[in-house]
Amino acid sequence: MREVAVVSFAQSAARREPARNEVEILMPVVTQAVEASGIPRHEIGFTCSGSCDYLAGQAFSFVSAVDALGAWPPIVESHVEMDAAWALYEAWAKIQCGMADSALVFGFGKSSPGEIRDVLTLQLDPYYLAPLWPDTVSLAAIQARVLLESGKASERDLAEVAARSRRDAAANPGAHQRDPSGVDELLARDYLVSPLRVHDCAPISDGAAAVVLAAGDLARKVCDRPAWIRGIDHRIEPHALGLRDLATSPSTRLAAEKAGLGSVPPEVAELHAPFTSQELILREALSLDAGVRVNPSGGALGANVVMAAGLVRIGEAARSIREGEASRALAHATSGPCLQQNLVCLLEAD
Amino acid sequence: MSQDLGPEETLSARFKLEFDYTRSVGPVVGRFLMGLLQRRIEGIRMSDGRVLVPPTEYDPLTSESLDEFVEVGDAGEVVSWSWVQVPREKHPLDRPFAWALIRLDGADVPMLHAVDAGSESRMRSGGRVKVRWRAERVGHIRDIECFEPEDAS
After folding, report:
1. Which helix (H) or strand (E) segment is A145 a member of?
2. What average pLDDT does the structure give for chain B?
3. Is residue B15 part of a domain?
4. B19, B50, B80, B115: which to substitute to probe chain A, counting the most A Cβ within 10 Å?
5. Which of A115, A143, A242 is the closest to B111 by Cβ?
6. So what's the pLDDT on residue B153?
7. Labelling A152: which of A159, A215, A217, B97 has CA 20 to 30 A away?
8. Within-domain flag for B28
9. Among A117, A132, A242, whose Cβ lies nearest the Cβ of B114?
10. Domain count of chain B?
């Protein structure tokens, strides 16, 4: 295996962006990530992005993002219709195959112009589920009830995840869900879709994020403390919700095992959990005990740029290594209803 | 001649996003949907013997082809649920309702649908619900209008 590291990361200040379009949000982010990487833009060997046409309401909307790249002379470029964490996976594989020594990975999306709860329904089975329009919050609420009734967690546990995430988000310029409310205050509020309250759900965010990867000696040359990708793996559970034990995440557990998590706990874990209940499910699947710092960025509950929030987890985990806060960090990204698909990326310092 | 347009004079055109094609649903999904037309719910036996409703052509765990249909009941047990106090425009009911995973009698794998329970206090995991059939059925998942608590009538 080739050694591959995250050498830079940039993101926009997530918020609702009525004025700027995707390219306008993306361009400074890409420029910042490329400049911070120390690799001249024209020497980056591969570019891969993650975004969703359904968010833009337009076919091949990702093509316009090329405007943000400076793609002349021509570049080698690809795209996934998934969170950009999966674009990073493709770029990592490209580097493993020896087809590039460096890669620019980015994700972007604007959720605020549409109804994101309805838009995400379009990823469901088109015959049995999508025609009923079960929105993301309603499905996550079914999952949360399975968790609560299993006795593994209480509504107070969920509110504690929310309160901690909002506190941490307040210190993160990339996040925007900031709220000093305590757990009792949060629990006094109404349900959105019972048993979930608004604080249990990720905010609606527009934005973009970008990461630069580099292999071996190039990474060492441009970066004092590269965040090496020691393992990365993606696993999928069946689509039918009734087939899954929704209170657990076997695909996350398996992805972590294949990524090489082993018995040494990471110091930091950035988990892509758009719902408080999902963070608790992921922590259990990854056997993270209280000693692991979970989502110091505020996580997806602090900012949830759909199609970039997973990549942001990898970027934040890598930053904790590059800045010396951790020597081993775990990043996780999810896709599909109720944590159907999960990707785990394990990062380490030298 | 060109002239500046104020914001209230900005030109606009209607745009409807649509994918105008039809799909064949195949021998398994098609049989399930045609069954609904006749108020019949059929599942399919998975490789491990469990009955999956609604049925799929392939085993979701092993990918083997499946072909043993099993008729199941039109009532069953709520496995988990959520309560929508404010329905969204596209939701199947326009009043507060529950989404539920429902294990139909004779099935092993629960299916998702809406339950018209009237109030949240009438919902509980383990509670019994039954199908309310749509009067005019067309061979579609929404031929099941919704479920309702079994003690409703």
Report:
1. helix A136-149
2. 93
3. no
4. B80
5. A242
6. 47
7. B97
8. yes
9. A132
10. 1
From the options 3.90.1720.10, 3.90.1150.10, 3.40.47.10, 3.20.20.70, give the CATH code of A116-201+230-348: 3.40.47.10
CA neighbor of A327 nearest in space, from A264, A253, A233, A260 = A264
Give the domain A4-114+204-227 fold.
Peroxisomal Thiolase; Chain A, domain 1 (3.40.47)
pLDDT at B3: 56
Torsion of CA A23, A29, A32, A36, to 10 degrees: -130
Q: Does A138 touch chain B (CB under 8 A)?
A: yes
Residue-range definition of the domain harbouring residue B61: 23-152
- As annotated, the residues of chain A forming the CATH 3.40.47.10 domain(s) are 4-114+204-227, 116-201+230-348
pLDDT in tens, A172-229: 999 999 888 999 999 999 999 999 999 999 999 999 999 999 999 999 999 999 999 9
Angle at the Cα of A209 from the Cα atoms of A204 and A215, rounded to 5 degrees:
150
| pLDDT of amino acid A180 | 87
Please report which helix (H) or strand (E) contains residue A38, including its range: none
CA dist A146 → A11, A55, A151, B78, B81 (Å): 35, 30, 9, 11, 8
Shortest alpha-carbon distance between residue B90 and chain A (Å):
6
Quick check: is B147 in a domain? yes
**Which residues 243-262 of A have a C-beta within 8 angstroms of B?**
243, 246
| Residue B90 belongs to a domain | yes
Q: Are A340 and A239 in contact (CB under 8 A)?
A: yes
Residue A119 near chain B (CB below 8 Å) = no
